[in-house]
Amino acid sequence: MNTLSRSSLALIIAFFNSPTFSDEPYDGEVFLKDEGRTYHVMHVHSRKSKPNGLHAWYGERVKNLDECDHNNADQGILQIFKNRKRVYCTAPPALTHLWLSPDEKYVVGLSDIYNNNTHQLVVYTVEGELVYNKTIECEELDSFCIGTNSEYIYWYHQSHPAIELEEIESGELRLSLHDKYKKRFGFSFPKKPDKPLDINACGRNRDPYHIEAFWNYYIQDRMHVSVKQADMVCVYYQTQRGTRAHYYISRVDFENRDTKEKSYRGFLSFNFNHFKKYPKYVEEYFSQDLPDLKRVTGLDFETAEEWIKWWEKNEKNLVLSEDGEHLVEKAQ
């Protein structure tokens, strides 16, 4: 009979005694706060759907929300106050831990939310300058870390990360914290970045993605937009294993209506030609493609016969709708 070493057995016991590592879709609401003598910081985010929208939910917790840079408010709002007067307000990633340094010079935000969250570590000065941001990947850490496919990444001690931030000999900053087993690990970075950092930059693989391929997968609900920024759009692809591959598309290509219309028309043409070529299997193919047909056209026909009749009548007369969401019949 094979035997386990003491270290192997301890690791297995520790894993099964660990907190539940959920991969249920995240829909949490969070309100975080930390205070010093002069400064205090607050963060709020919600992934739940609200009857009156996120703006109303934030409005209950964020004074003068319209003064904040909250173009990505679905990610969250961060406010920094000095002597009770707000000096900074912006939209960071959705955070799950907030820390104000004892010397009241820096604000550190941590997050275990992986899905649709560009970074899991951010560092700001109390004046609001972003000095460091990082997308956490387990394979890059020399510490305990576990990712649950696509939703969460557990990489720091949940209840007491014991954050420390100090200036080291090189003149850089060194941030360290505890993992789940209180092993200290950390990151070094310049006190002032060479160029301004973008909190909404594509966090992971910054690989370009072909725009027509993007629209094809988008139609099938397999490619998703995470963040839009000035010059590019961050997108991710849901793999069969449940993980996410992250890419970017130039904003110019993404907003090109002609390309989107061409892709949508090509998708419909391919499917309806397939129906004609294999009439014996129309019902089978139709049942598989129905959600995609509805997504492209906004129509709600229920039978293959109705769809085919519509296509034959309108094939040459379809254009992208004004809102860019569907192919519609061109106005006469």
What does the secondary structure layout of this molecule look like, with pairings?
Layout: H1 6-16, E1 29-35, E2 39-46, H2 53-59, E3 77-82, E4 85-90, E5 97-100, E6 106-110, E7 121-125, E8 130-134, E9 146-147, E10 153-154, E11 164-167, E12 173-178, E13 184-189, E14 207-208, H3 211-219, E15 223-228, E16 232-238, E17 244-250, H4 251-254, H5 257-277, H6 282-297, H7 304-314, E18 318-320, E19 327-329
Parallel strand pairs: 14-17
Antiparallel strand pairs: 1-2, 2-3, 3-4, 5-6, 6-7, 7-8, 9-10, 11-12, 12-13, 15-16, 16-17, 18-19
Helix pairs in contact: 3-5, 5-6
Structure description:
Helices cover 24% and strands 28% of the residues. It is an alpha+beta fold and 332 residues long. The protein folds into three domains: 6-189, no CATH class; 207-254, Signal recognition particle alu RNA binding heterodimer, srp9/1 (2-Layer Sandwich), CATH 3.30.720; 257-329, no CATH class. The strands form six sheets. A four-stranded antiparallel β-sheet has the order 1-2-3-4, with helices on one face. Strands 5-6-7-8 form a four-stranded antiparallel β-sheet, with no helix packed on it. Strands 14-17-16-15 form a four-stranded mixed β-sheet. Mean pLDDT is 79; it is low at 1-20 and 70-74.
